[in-house]
Amino acid sequence: MIVPDTRSLDALIEAFEQHQRRTRGLRDQTLHYYSRLARGLIREALGDDPIDVRHLAPSDVIRFVGGTPSRFSPRTMKTVGTALRSFFRFLRTEGIGDERLETAIPAVAHWRLSALPRCLSDEQLARVLASFGGSTPCVLRDQAIVFCLATLGLRPGEVAELRLEDLDWRQGTVHLRTRKTRRGAVLPLPRDAGRAIVTYLRRERPRTGERRVFVQHRGHRRGAPISRQVVSGVVAQALRRAGVEAPLTGAYVFRHSVASRMVRRGISLKEVGDFLGHRSLDTTTIYAKLDVPSLLEVALPWPEVTP
């Protein structure tokens, strides 16, 4: 199929999405993101319909990418470049683009492990954990979710997937069926998290045949399992309620906080990685920056400077 040079932007984006599905099998979520960036570039550079993508110039690409860092992190900026390269390759495949557009995408500096882990201070964590109260329909569920995140460092999907049979009350453990390592894990169940779960199960959880621990409480999906998005929403609401300005607004802020506390207590990076279910120790090494005593031991002395 040859895409006409001049056409509506909607038709061009639809052809781009079909091409990506056919050749790369991208997920709808990824396609939506790629399409949104391509649409933004074309509208900014060529204006309203009808458009002629042959008029798209390298200077338009540089200007568009140069204006996005204020909205995206360096990591996300690399994804912006990937999305635009896919779009430009599609244009070349259809005979209406050239390699100059791809080479015009500016390189974005982003070094792995260049930043400190974004976590909560002990005082902020205490404020969040103490913020639950009132008589809202989901307060005990939300409290149990946050305690699981804040004490076990679970991913939001791991919390949503917890099943009743995964909790071994006699042994005081929780069984995680799948992790990113593609292996399960058995972790000690902290007392505070265990108490919060028991209180939720006894007092608030709707009557349902669902085996997932955490379920929906309202609407037509009452009793149905929650999603990882619900877990992240619970965290965002808890942070707002506690008045905590967190470096991250999602569930991963607790995961980073758990890892940071473990490192500060002298637990080895290997043990931290195993506890969090990291596939590679490289993922855990960023927390080494928080072990100040060890860093002091390896730091070279600064030579004295005499006038």
Number of helices: 14
Structural class: mainly alpha
Strand runs, count: 5
- In terms of quaternary structure, the protein is single chain
Query: How many strands, which pairing sense, and closed or not: the largest β-sheet?
Result: 3 strands, antiparallel
Instruction: Give the low-pLDDT segments.
Output: 1-5
- In whole angstroms, the N-to-C terminal distance is 75 Å
Order of helices and strands: EHHEHHHHHHEEEHHHHHH
Give the DSSP E fraction (strand runs of 2 or more residues).
Answer: under 5%
Give me the Rg, rounded. 25 Å
The portion of residues assigned to helices is: 40-55%
What's the overall geometry?
globular
Mean pLDDT: 83
Strand order of the largest sheet: 3-4-5
Structure description:
This protein is mainly alpha-helical and 307 residues long. The protein is built from 14 helices and 5 strands. It has helices at 9-24, 28-46, 58-66, 74-93, 99-103, 122-129, 139-152, 156-160, 191-203, 228-242, 252-264, 269-276, 281-284, 292-298; strands at 6-7, 51-52, 167-168, 173-176, 185-188. The strands form 2 sheets. Strands 3-4-5 form a 3-stranded antiparallel beta sheet, with no helix packed on it. The protein has a two-stranded antiparallel ribbon with strand order 1-2. Helix 7 packs antiparallel against helix 9 (191-203) and helix 7 (139-152) packs across helix 11 (252-264).
